[in-house]
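Q: What would this chain look like folded?
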Amino acid sequence: MTARFRLPAGRTYNVRASELARDRQHTEVVCNILLLDNTVQAFRVNKHNQGQVLLDVVFKHLDLTERDYFGLQLADESTDNPRWLDPNKPIRKQLKRGSPHSLNFRVKFFVSDPNKLQEEYTRYQYFLQIKQDILTGRLPCPHNTAALLASYAVQSELGDYNHSENLPGYLSDYSFIPSQPQDFEKEIAKLHQQH
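A: My prediction, written as structure tokens:
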């Protein structure tokens, strides 16, 4: 396959398909996106595209319909002043040289009332974000509230408490708060029994 480009003074230049493929490789970048469930997904996009193209690819991958609440945060930035991928600017102007680039998929705008979120999957993404923010200490939470929220998280993941299945230590693989004390698991288990 060849492509023909028109040069000044009516001259033409034929480009072979291999040259076009090579040029396409130089314009494509790989973006590794850390999703809220702690998985990393790689996406290939043209570096000349607007940031919205990458956002749309991620939203499509997640099958997310309520998109206005989420964004991509640049992973190499400090947490004091996070920088978000601007959907209206070209990707190449926002990401540093070199590929692959690392970005974090995060909730960008929180709603005051979760009932305003129409999709169950959107609420689940909010749940993952809040769970992650409490675990990392980014969102300070009183001890008793953290225990109650953790018991709800256990209820949602493991279901109803069952004496024969939920033996002592069944929560030892879970972390809910930074520097989690040993007795915290017992508090969660006690609250989990009540749900």
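The CA atoms of residues 27 and 46 lie 6 Å apart.
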